[in-house]
Model the fold of this input.
Amino acid sequence: RFSCRASGGGLVQAGGSLKLSCAASGRPFSMYVMGWFRQAPGKEREFVSGINKSRSRRYYADSVKGRFTMSSDNAKNTMFLQMNSLKPEDTAIYYCAARVKAYSGMHPLSDMDYWGKGTQVTVSS
Done:
């Protein structure tokens, strides 16, 4: 069975950077569309970024475009989210997730099949 787990969160000052990792296990990583989501206190979970199975297309939420970069290492079954120029409004629990259904990489990702345990990101002003 496939599973994934996010790590790398922490406390950072506004303007700083963090790099999150998502380690996957179980079935081959390349079989899955992967995404990052986040949930801030008192808010619904929202899409952050998504990547298609071939890892050739990425899509970012407008709120993080130009600041966050998603990448993956299929050989290590790991996905990353490099977060730069962090803002207090980026404070949230960040989750990685996967799904089997194909994804074009041209719109926000949804309908995920697997969710990992989240990691807390706190950005102080």
Remarks:
- DSSP finds no helices and eleven strands in the chain.
- The two ends are 41 Å apart (CA to CA).
- The chain has a mean pLDDT of 95.
- Residues 36 and 56 are 16 Å apart (CA to CA).
